[in-house]
Design brief:
Elements (H helix, E strand, L loop, with lengths): L2 H12 L2 H4 L9 H17 L3 H10 L8 H8 L11 H5 L5 H10 L3 H9 L2 H10 L3 H9 L10 H19 L10 H12 L3 H4 L5 E6 L6 H13 L4 E8 L2 H14 L6 E3 L15 E4 L11 H11 L16 H9 L14 E6 L2 H4 L6 H11 L3 E6 L13 E6 L9 E6 L5 E7 L2 E4 L10 H10 L1 H6 L9 E5 L4 E8 L3 E5 L2 H9 L1 H4 L4 H8 L6 E2 L2 H14 L8 H11 E3 L4 E2 L1 E2 L2 E2 L7 E6 L4 H9 L7 E2 L5 E4 L3 H4 L9 H23 L1
Parallel strand pairs: 1-2, 1-4, 2-3, 4-5, 6-8
Antiparallel strand pairs: 5-7, 6-7, 8-11, 9-10, 12-19, 12-20, 12-21, 13-14, 13-15, 13-16, 17-18
Keywords: Methyltransferase, Transferase
EC number: 2.1.1.-
Organism: Streptomyces pratisoli
Amino acid sequence: MNSSKHTELANHAWSVADLLRGDYKQSDYGKVILPFTVLRRLECVLEPTRDKVVETVTRFAGQEIDTNHFLRKASGNSFYNKSDLTLRKIAADPQNAAKNLQIYVGAFSDNAREVLDKYEFTQQVRKLDSANLLYQVIGKFTDLDLHPDVVPNHNMGYIFEELIRRFAEQSNETAGEHFTPREVIKLMVNLLVAPDADALSLPGVVRTVMDPACGTGGMLSAADDRIKALNPDATVEVYGQELNPESWAICRSDLMIKGQDPENIAFGNSFSDDGHARRKFDYILANPPFGVEWKKVKDEVEYEHKSLGDAGRFGAGLPRINDGSLLFLQHMISKMKPVDVNGGGGSRIAIVFNGSPLFSGAAESGESNIRRWILENDWLEAIVALPDQLFYNTGISTYFWILTNRKDADHKGKVVLLDARDQWQKMRKSLGDKRKELGDGTNGRPDHIADITRLYAEAVQVAKDPEHPLHGKVKVFANEDFGYQRITVERPLKLRFEVTEETLAALAEAKPVAKLEGSAEFVAALRPLLGSTWMTKSEAFIALKDAVVAAGLTWPSGAPFAKVVRETVGVRDPEGEVQKVKGAPEPDADLRDYENVPLGDDVEDYLKREVLPHVPDAWIDHTKTKIGYEIPFTRHFYVYKPPRPLAEIDAELKSLEAEIQALLGEVTE
């Protein structure tokens, strides 16, 4: 089935919007169209065995036994409907359409009915009936041919996703939510599965795949297709979890249609209600929403972080509240199978991120600690930079992170950075923010997917070969190359001391002075010293104390008073006296600086080489040193482009001036 047929069928389903206009808000059209599309698909799938199911219901009528197994067997699917009603019969009786539709939906097996319940289907039926639209909507869908011999399961996925995309656009959904383009999924699955091609081709192979933010199930379907392309006899079990009820319903119905167990798709938030808490999987992949906060599950996540620590999912750290991307990655890592003593087992992970998880967060922040945990465990295999404008609801740059706990020998202790940002072609027609696509080699298009997959497989060798034409697109680093020491460089506080109108005013307002009995007299006693300057603290304090005593007042004692006098009368001066605390130079907070030193470097050597030639009195406060990790992807691939020669720019400006003058001449003639 070609894309025009997908579009035609999606258009037919979406044309119901013409009936809904006025009674429904535009952003709510999908709440009717999506469940009716699911219902029609289920009906079409069940049609060949409908009579057999009805016969089975009749045969077991009145018997107190669980008929679920027999009805599934009669249906030939994991779901069934016990009624002899159809949408066409219901549409033919407009007066009883609502009642009959409820009977029809109620006759579905529990797993199918649960899908429709998540759409709040009963409420939509009531609303349509009260607007006298129900029989018309049903009639529209009876004309939609979604029989499996016309629309195979894989193609049905395209139609579902096209409808979901339209719904997302109408609802103004958050960027990245709901929908991942097919060619992006295909590349992602290639990179996830390709290294295991030999193992997957073995007879009787069984693999489990999980997506903790599965949406409509597009990634799960693509992983299933890819593994079966390598081995048609492979058994693939897919699992997922989804928070959005409509997306969950479509994903679950897709599994029912394909003969997989719909119970494998859990509903709810993966962070607070893990639907696969005790399961491990061979492959885990996801495109979680970009930059979406996790405030709603803050209590549950923080409780697990504090109470379970490394025994839980979030022991490595918690990212900032406005971006839960790295929480998803920690959750996925918790689903990896352990590697056995013979090197067997283990898992592979692929996840789509924006640029933020690469570098956000300072040293020893939650994000940095999560990156450190991943790199020090040698789980990060590669990061692949993708072109921008690939996604429907956002034009931002995106990256694949590929992780595994069973790296091969060539990748151990290393991370591959692969720059695929130039691997794209312009779309003939933009779809939302999507203006670029990855070519797949069909219809005369370049095969970007195959090219990137090939380069990924050869990345370590290409990075070693400076003569390779794609050498500049791949870089390989040791894990520790991304680590750094955040050092605090201190310089001594140097002060001179002076009495001015400003310093006297500041002294009068300071709490230790303002609380003195006769504070005004105290300040007045210092006024004769206006204009005086001292280069040492001892000289200043002796002069100040003498002036106060000469006025018949007592010089207060105590550290708070001495501190406030120094702070108000002292003035920073590069030539001033170095202030000391317990015999050591006191650091000047205003001159404090921070440097990031590569993890393997000696910080004292760095200080001597990079700092002391410029500020000889600087030192490192080792008690404040922190370890951080970041992955500055774009910096590693930056290529300096020198500016054009001034003569060339000047000539171009003169040419433009002449052109403007000529145009102005034509206007004034």
